[in-house]
């Protein structure tokens, strides 16, 4: 029930900040108030501002429940200044009764899933530790020296720490993904009944896919869900956006930069800004251009600064951009290892302990069959095929006047999505790294065909039926797998979700092994490391023990550095200790 309250408060506070932002833009004559704005768009804008504020503050202070409380008080002040806005927030008259029922049931399903303990593989490795570090300290110089993945800078971890409430509850809550999942579900449900037929068909397809793929991780502190949902929202806003500088245009700009700070794999979205700006270039004023640049800078500069402080590099883990000479810089070999493992896992899905970087030099014809064979979900392969052949479908639309006209508003989003799909496949083709680009590329061209049949079948009924069917399947899975098979005691976790903690595995001594560095610093490695990399909520923990690690000064807040005198590190030596390493490399 606590999560439901947090989702409601988060939605309400983001709405007020988004409303203030909208009215400020109108008062400065930067946008016209003549265009209607949906409440969900105001909430999205408020969420973008929360990310912006959290990143800025993380450079100077810990981001914890004090920041969350300050955000709440600020929203209260806005509410007092705009007393009538509360009624508008709860106004759902634009939704028909079926949509209200479906979204209410969706909320119930998401809530039940959120009572589970996070089981995303990376959540106990570095997601939770990243959030805990952000709660306890402002950004820590050289934190990547302790654990390389703690330098994977995502604004998602920072904003999550503002709502984690660890100090109050004794466990960390993860409300962001559930909140965004429900918000985007509502946005898509509204668009299913939209008069924009292509957008309506795409909304139904995307909603079915996100329930199937993302619901299973909605209770985990992974940035993958936010990094998937926000780009999809951008595409839908873009499809229906008129060629003028409106609040929707500003919102797209805001969400593009938020998405990039959450996951760098979303950088192809920047191309979309060029597509959107070109048709309205003649009407753009200097203040409007300054607004766009200001939003980008306010989001990207703190994110870049955090990169430099965490790792010593402008973009971690890409050592090619090496512009800074700081004492906390992560050793080059370790940065290269992290970079290579991202690509290695994406292509071969083999544990880090058995990584063979020579395989990364294989041409496409050699690594592709292995990649194809190891796609776990049944739908991954057909969706990938649909995305690959989508350009042929797009070309076919140009030979039909009606289809070409229907596809024209979708062309820009499709080109950006397909560009993102190609970028994803050639860099790190793990499906979860490119969900929004893959899905939109696969679905958008085919959605153009469906309106041709709208007079023959009740298409709206089929769209709603598909959404309801996947919700029934998700409910059945929760009941059958979690409640019956695994005997999950849901009644114990209705108030507060089951925590992600080492205590569910064993005692501290059973889960962690202390190691002392050359400087006398005690680091706790998981028992069974490096095969077992789960650090959970323990701050001074890493799956790899580096004897060269030391504090930069006396306090942890002042950061870490390596005392290595050469490029050679202890990482490769630890990996070679795994007795199955050579055998697995040969098998691969």
Structure description:
There is one protein chain. This protein has about 600 residues and is mainly alpha-helical. Among the domains are: about 1-30 and about 35-90 and about 100-310, no CATH class; about 340-455, no CATH class. Helix content is about 60%, strand content about 5%. The protein contains 24 helices and four strands. The strands form two sheets. The chain has a two-stranded antiparallel sheet with strand order 1-2. Strand 3 and strand 4 (about 560) form a beta hairpin. Helix 2 (about 40-60) packs across helix 15 (about 285-310). The longest helix has 27 residues, at about 400-425. The radius of gyration is 24 Å and the shape is globular. Residues about 565-570 and about 580-588 have low confidence and may be disordered.
Task: Please count the beta strands (DSSP E, at least 2 residues each).
Answer: 4
Going by helix content, strand content and strand pairing, the class is mainly alpha
Helix content: 55-70%
Largest sheet: 2 strands, antiparallel
Rg is 24 Å
- Anisotropy-based shape: globular
- Please give the order of strands in the largest beta sheet: 1-2
